[in-house]
Every structure is written in structure tokens, then in C-alpha cells.
Write a structure and sequence with these properties.
The structure holds two protein chains of two kinds.
Chain A (H helix, E strand, L loop, with lengths): L1 H36 L1 H4 L3 E4 L2 E5 L23 E2 L1 H5 L18 H17 L23 E2 L1 H5 L2 H8 L3 H10 L1 E2 L10 E3 H11 L4
Antiparallel strand pairs in A: 1-2, 4-6, 5-6
Chain B lengths: L1 H25 L7 H15 L8 H24 L16 H12 L9 H4 L2 H30 L7 H27 L9 E4 L5 E4 L4 H10 L20 H41 L15 H26 L3 H5 L17 H14 L14 H13 L8 H21 L4 E2 L2 E2 L2 H27 L1 H4 L7 H15 L14 H30 L16 H33 L3
Antiparallel strand pairs in B: 1-2, 3-4
Helix pairs in contact in B: 1-9, 2-7, 3-4, 3-6, 3-18, 4-18, 6-7, 6-8, 6-9, 6-18, 7-8, 7-9, 8-9, 9-10, 9-12, 10-12, 10-13, 10-19, 12-13, 13-17, 13-19, 14-15, 14-19, 15-17, 15-18, 17-18, 17-19
The chains are: A mainly alpha, B mainly alpha.
Chain lengths: 207, 582
């Protein structure tokens, strides 16, 4: 019994040491170093306009304005909400994720049909066959900041009509906000919607 | 396709120095970093008065259990009282009892199944002191059990549990976690202690953005094959995994230690054969000493295991990638042309290639982190992660994957031995009745837990209530949850409404039994083999260092899986696939 207690004491002390080293010292040192070396990234990569944060470079937004490019459907509306939605409890607080609908789930078909209909209404010049699949499917995180190049181009007609900008101007803006594959091999071509919209908004004096 | 091949090729190059480094840590050989770490480790031993002498397998197992028990106890307390004002800028409440129990078991067993959502469920205090700390210690525990087993099988002394845990933590896990963490921050992963950000968008709406020590958790989450995310949607969120580079860094991180364990094993076996050869030469006074080849890559026994694991991995990856590339049947039937595969539940920056690679790696190396939602995978795409967790030997979690594979190797030589009428031997040790009984027990526990509890869940209302997808997929959700628990993986078909007393308690039990029963039995096998005298290799010995044996191993694994899991798989993903026309 005495021997067992000795074992137990050692195990307990070792556990406490691990709490201190791994649970406290390690994250604190990493926080300190990151804050000094990468101050912007370590605080959420915020994008500022006139000194005020309007979004994070790495988080998408629930854009609905007809003059702007829209993101993919999100189960959590990108944690974007209005004060009324918060007060009424419709916005339940910070979240992330997707609807988790299996391909065989009829609810997925329903949601897709709704989103396709909405998209065609907003973009009357587009025919159903030309809708890229990423713009009507929900991302895994519900926070995807990107859309594919095709998904940006397919919205150009609408944005051009509502902003008065020319197709060429928009095409150039999309190109400027497209990041290619890393080394031409890894990843996919993506368009950052927030950055693209900021450029559009600046052009039409929205901000 | 090209990027998958390139990602894996680069990994094959960088794993060699890392595997060697871990081998040196394990066997107390010299490394470049010794002057610094010797001082730190000796300091820890001295302050805690740790006796660093060798332990027998029973004492080793006891220390492991006691250490884990203490962590569970203190961690549980912290979860319950996390609402106190320290490191809690977002005002998170204390955690409910059955959820705390589930969470603490989940993280201690290296499972990281999460029935809570990080954003609303945990304060920064819990994230750091409980989650991050346990990610280190559960990985170190798995590693320690594994190297002890390997030592035992090879007839070496088992070593000291505290030494093994300290060495892998200070010499590998913490420095690597720091480097990877800093790299992730450079890619955009937040690392701060500030409250969540609320900002006004250019459309005049409000948006909340999560903050916290995310990078510190992210790096060890993958290095220790843990997998529990800081945020609900895990590594699919851009805050945890913002770029394709961060994605590859996370992929590599989770592959390092399990692969390095195989390297360590290979080198240790090689060392043993060299020692034996040298001894023999001494006694027979042979004239020429045949030189050990100048460079040992993996050792032949290690190569067999590595090859078998790789074959299983590549088959799974190919099936998953192919199936996801075919697209989502619901999207197709809605009249949309899919040129980029099934994008439901996936991120644009990863696409189908990086997503299916991540899915296969996370379930093969039993990490359980996800960069896309597994519930939304195509039926056969979802079959692969499920199957790899059922096998639980395709590299596997830190340490335990290798331990399971060694059990299959023992069973493999036993089956072959029966076929050719020889006494089975593995690594120079006779495999006899006692070891076979233990190995069989070890193999049986896993399917028993998965299938037994799945049957329970679908036969009581409390279990059925959790299912959110109708039809065959509903059964797959249940099966996936328990497979993930038993394999200590932790990924989920996240649609399952699992934060109820029934799911919290049953999953907690499965994780606990799946982890500790296996480890204890495996250590017992090692302890039993340790006491045996080495048999000399004869003409009748079945060689286990050949490609033939690697193929045999693959078949043994598949046959066992098919015998136990095929009926369940047929009712779940295969039926779903058939109804959707595959």
C-alpha cells in the first residue's frame, strides 16, 4: 500500500508538471512570439477601412447587396447578423460547421433547389447549366472566404448591371484578387470575396 | 492528382531525418540537441525526484494508468469550474457533468471526439490547461506504450515510463509544436488571449470572429494525432487552416510521429540483429566480420511493416479520391454540372484533392481532425475513413497503430506457421499459446465495442434520437461514431446529435475501453515475449522481412476486417451507394 501511494504521488506530481509546461508555458511563449513576429495574423488578419475593421481576410461574409459578389451558402450565415437578429435570438452566437446533409438526404436536394432558384433570380442572365457547383453547395466550415474563379465570373453580369462598372473592369478586379495554386501544383485557384468586394465598393464610392 | 503524389513524395523525403531523430530519442542515442535538453530533462527528474531506472511491464503499465488517472481527475475539475474569471474573456459557462466526462475521456485517450463546440463550450483556460496539455500527454502516453512494447518484444528492458514521456515531450513534441505553430500563425491562424472580435461589415451588418490561442492548439493537435479542433468545424475553418500551405503543414504534422514510430521499430530490430551477429561471431571466432551496411534506411523488418501500411493507405486514398471526384449525386440531380467534384461540405481552397487526402490521412493516422465534413462525403468516399478506423493499423495514432500492426504480424506468422507446419516465430521469439490468446483477445475487442454499441444505439430510443440523416446513412452515422471512439480517432459524421447523456456516456465508455484494454494487453504480450529465450533462425523459419510477408500482412488485415465488419458496412455506406447508383 505504501508503495502504491509513492507511485501515486509521483504520478500526481508529474501530472502537475505537465499542466504547467504544456498547458501554460508553451501556449504563453507561442503567444508572445507570435504577437511580436506576426502581429496582424495572430490577431485575426483584420482588414481595415478608414481605421475601422470591416472583416477578416480569412473569413467569408454573408454578402447580400446586389452590387457585390456573393459567397457560398453557409449553415451559419458566416456569423453575420443584425442587431435585431441577435435580440430575437435568431443569431445564437459564434458557430461554425455545415448542415451535414448526406448525398442521400432529401433535405440536401431541397436546399440545393432553393439556392439554385435564388441564384437564378438574382442573376437572370445565367442559365442553370452554367452555375458552378461551388456557389450553390455549402462549405464545411460555413466560413469559406473563397469562391472559384468561375463562380466569380458568373456573377459579373449582375454586378456590372447594378454598379455601372464595365465587364473589363470587373474581370481585372477578379484577376487581381485570384490566388493561383502554390508552385502551380498545390491547392486550387481561389477568389477572395471580401477583398474583391472592397475593391468594387471603393470604385463605386460605397465606402 | 499530381498534388497528392507530390505531397506524399515530399513527405517520404522529410520523414527520414525525423524518423532517425525519434529513434535516437527512444534509444537514448546522441542527438545534436542533447546539451540543451539533457539539462532540461535532468532538471525535471531532479525536481520531481524521478527514479529513472528500468521498469517491468506491470510497473510500466501501472505508472501509465496512474499518470493518466491524475490528469483526468484534475482536468475534469477544470472543465467543471471553467466559468471562473481566469482566461475567460468570452464568459463561457462551466461544462455539464456527462459532457465533461465524455470530453475528458476523449482527450485523455487521444480520441478527441467532441460533443461540444469549441466556440461556445470551452474557455481559454480549458483550451490551454486541459485540451492543449492533454494533447501532449496523451500522445506521449501512446508513444511510451509503443516503445515499451517494441523493447519487450525484442527482449530489451522495457525502460522507464516517466523518462519516455519526458524525452518525447521536451525533445520532440514541444519544439515541433512551437515551430509548426509559428508557421501556422504566419499563414493566418490567430494566436492571442483576446476576446472574440465583433465588427461591422461594409453592408452595415455585424460579424463575430473567433479569437484565442488557436495556433498553439492546432500544431499539437496534429503532431500528437489528437484531432480535436479549437472551433466546432475543426480544420475546415479558415481560422484553423487558412491556406493550402497550412493544410500541408497540418497533414505532415499528423503523419510524423506514427511514421517515425515505424522507423524507430525498424532501427531497433536492425540493432538487435547486428548485436546478435556480433555475438555469434565472437563465439565462433569467424575470420571476417561482415560490415553493417553504411546507411540503414528503415531496417528490413521496419520496411515490411511500413510497406504493408503504405499499401493499405494508397488503396484507401485512391478509392476516396475517385469517389469524391465523381461528384455529389444530389447536386447532379438538381441539374448542375460538376466539373470540380463533390463540393458540398468542402472548402474552395482545398478542393477535392487536398480534401480527400486529408480525409484518408486523418482516419489512417487516427487523428480525427477534418478539413471537410465527412457526413457530406459520397457513400464510397465516406466508406474509406470508416474502414480505415475499423482497421486501425494504417499507421494509426501515435504508437498504438504500430502496436496494433505488430499484433497483426503475430497473427500473420501464426496463420502462415499453421499452413506450412512450423512453430510460428516473430523477431526471433517463439509465438505460443499464451501470446496467441492475448493477441486474439486484442483483435476481438475492437469490433466487439463497435458493433456491440452500435447495436445498442439502434435498439434504444435515446440512440435513435441522435440520427439526423434518414435511411442507410443514419446507420452509418451511428457506426461511424462508435468506430471513431473505439479507434480513438475522434472525427465524426458531425450531423449526429450526440450531446445527450446516452451518447456522452456510451462513447466515453467505448473510448476508455478501446484505449486502455488494448494497451494493457499489448504490454502483456510484450512482457511475455520478453521472458523468452531467442530462438536461432533455421531453414524452417518463416522470414518476416520480405515483401511477401508485407503482402500477407495486407491480406490478413483485410480478411479480418471483412470477416468482422462487412455485414455492417453492407447495411450502411454500401447500400447507400447502391441506391444512389454509386
Amino acid at each position: 500500500m505504501k508503495k502504491f501511494l509513492r507511485h501515486f504521488r509521483l504520478a500526481f506530481l508529474f501530472a502537475i508538471a505537465m499542466f504547467v509546461i504544456c498547458g501554460f508555458i508553451y501556449p504563453m511563449v507561442l503567444t508572445g512570439v507570435s504577437q511580436v513576429v506576426f502581429p496582424s495574423q495572430s490577431n485575426g488578419s483584420l482588414v481595415e477601412v478608414d481605421g475601422k475593421a470591416v472583416g477578416s481576410e480569412i473569413v467569408g461574409q454573408d454578402f447580400t447587396d446586389e452590387r457585390l459578389f456573393h459567397c457560398r451558402p453557409s449553415a451559419y450565415n458566416y456569423n453575420t447578423y443584425t442587431q435585431e437578429q441577435k435580440d430575437s435570438g435568431e443569431y445564437a452566437g459564434l458557430s461554425s460547421g455545415s448542415n451535414n446533409y448526406a448525398p442521400s438526404n432529401p433535405a440536401l436536394k431541397e436546399r440545393l433547389d432553393e439556392d439554385i432558384e435564388k441564384f437564378l433570380e438574382e442573376n437572370p442572365t445565367v442559365s442553370k447549366e452554367d452555375i458552378p457547383s461551388d456557389i450553390i453547395t455549402a462549405s464545411g466550415s460555413g466560413l469559406d472566404p473563397h469562391i472559384s474563379v468561375e463562380a466569380a465570373k458568373v456573377q459579373m453580369d449582375r454586378v456590372a448591371k447594378n454598379t455601372g462598372l464595365s465587364q473589363e473592369q470587373l474581370e481585372k478586379m477578379i484577376e487581381e484578387n485570384t490566388s493561383g495554386k502554390f508552385l502551380g501544383i498545390f491547392g486550387e485557384e481561389t477568389v477572395n470575396v471580401l477583398k474583391l468586394n472592397l475593391m468594387v465598393a471603393q470604385e463605386i464610392d460605397m465606402i | 492528382m499530381l498534388q497528392i503524389v507530390c505531397t506524399l513524395l515530399v513527405f517520404m523525403v522529410i520523414i527520414f531525418p525525423i524518423g532517425k531523430y525519434v529513434y535516437h530519442i527512444t534509444t537514448h542515442k546522441k542527438t545534436f540537441a542533447d546539451p540543451l535538453f539533457d539539462r532540461i530533462d535532468n532538471g525535471i527528474y531532479k525536481i520531481l525526484k524521478i527514479d529513472t531506472s528500468n521498469m517491468g511491464w506491470k510497473k510500466y503499465a501501472l505508472s501509465l494508468l496512474l499518470f493518466n488517472a491524475c490528469l483526468v481527475f484534475v482536468g475534469y475539475l477544470i472543465l467543471r469550474i471553467q466559468s471562473i474569471g481566469i482566461f475567460n474573456p468570452n464568459g463561457i459557462e462551466g461544462m455539464e457533468a456527462s459532457l465533461s466526462y465524455n470530453t475528458i475521456i476523449s482527450f485523455m485517450t487521444n480520441t478527441n471526439l467532441q460533443h461540444y463546440s469549441g466556440e461556445s463550450g470551452l474557455s481559454y483556460l480549458s483550451q490551454m490547461f486541459v485540451i492543449i496539455m492533454m494533447m501532449f500527454t496523451s500522445a506521449a502516453t501512446g508513444y511510451a506504450a509503443c516503445v515499451a512494447m517494441v523493447r519487450g518484444i525484442l527482449g530489451k528492458r522495457m525502460g522507464n515510463f516517466y523518462c519516455d514521456v519526458t524525452r518525447i515531450t521536451t525533445r520532440f513534441l514541444i519544439p515541433m509544436a512551437f515551430i509548426v505553430g509559428l508557421f501556422l500563425v504566419s499563414q493566418g491562424v490567430p494566436q492571442n488571449l483576446s476576446p472574440n472580435i465583433t465588427l461591422t461589415t461594409i453592408e452595415g451588418k455585424l460579424q463575430d470572429i473567433a479569437s484565442g490561442p488557436i495556433a498553439a492548439l492546432e500544431s499539437i493537435k496534429h503532431l500528437g494525432t489528437n484531432g480535436g479542433g479549437f472551433l466546432g468545424a475543426n480544420s475546415s475553418t479558415p481560422l484553423e487552416n487558412p491556406t493550402v500551405l497550412s493544410n500541408i503543414a497540418e497533414l505532415y504534422s499528423m503523419m510524423f510521429l506514427p511514421a517515425a514510430c515505424v522507423f524507430t521499430f525498424g532501427h531497433m530490430v536492425y540493432d538487435k540483429y547486428q548485436e546478435r551477429k556480433a555475438k555469434k561471431l565472437d563465439t565462433t571466432a569467424s575470420k571476417e566480420f561482415d560490415k553493417p551496411s553504411s546507411k540503414v534506411w528503415l531496417g528490413k523488418e521496419g520496411r515490411t511493416i511500413f510497406a504493408a501500411m503504405s499499401i493499405l493507405f494508397v488503396i484507401g486514398l485512391a478509392l476516396c479520391f475517385f469517389s469524391e471526384s465523381q461528384g455529389n449525386s444530389a447536386v447532379a440531380s438538381a441539374g448542375i454540372t460538376q466539373t470540380i467534384g463533390n463540393m458540398e461540405g468542402k472548402e474552395v481552397r482545398f478542393g477535392v484533392a487536398q480534401s480527400s487526402l486529408f480525409t484518408t490521412v486523418t482516419t489512417s493516422f487516427t487523428t480525427g481532425t477534418v478539413n471537410n465534413m465527412h457526413d457530406t462525403l459520397t457513400p464510397l468516399g465516406g466508406l474509406v475513413p470508416l474502414l480505415h478506423m475499423m482497421l486501425n493499423v494504417v499507421f494509426g495514432g501515435v504508437g498504438v497503430g504500430l502496436m496494433n500492426m505488430l499484433i497483426y504480424a503475430i497473427i500473420g506468422v501464426f496463420i502462415c506457421g499453421l499452413m506450412i507446419g512450423r512453430t510460428p516465430e516473430y523477431l526471433g521469439k517463439k509465438i505460443e499459446g499464451k501470446e496467441m490468446k492475448l493477441a486474439a483477445l486484442c483483435i476481438i475487442i475492437h469490433p466487439l465495442l463497435i458493433l456491440g454499441f452500435s447495436a445498442l444505439a439502434v435498439s434504444v430510443q435515446a440512440g435513435l434520437d441522435g440520427i439526423t440523416n434518414p435511411g442507410f446513412h443514419g446507420l452509418t452515422q451511428v457506426l461511424y461514431e462508435f468506430t471513431s471512439s473505439a479507434a480513438n480517432n475522434g472525427s465524426g459524421f458531425e450531423g449526429l446529435a450526440d450531446n445527450t447523456v446516452f451518447w456522452n456516456v456510451t462513447c466515453g465508455l467505448v473510448m476508455f475501453l478501446g484505449r486502455y484494454l488494448s494497451i494493457i494487453i499489448q504490454l502483456a504480450i510484450a512482457g511475455s515475449l520478453f521472458n523468452k529465450i531467442d530462438v536461432n533462425e533455421s531453414i524452417g523459419t518463416l522470414k518476416t522481412n520480405t515483401w511477401t510477408f508485407a503482402i500477407i500482412l495486407v491480406f490478413v488485415v483485410y480478411i479480418f476486417a471483412a470477416l468482422t465488419f462487412l455485414p455492417a458496412l453492407a447495411l450502411g455506406p454500401i447500400s447507400e451507394g447502391l441506391t444512389l447508383g454509386l
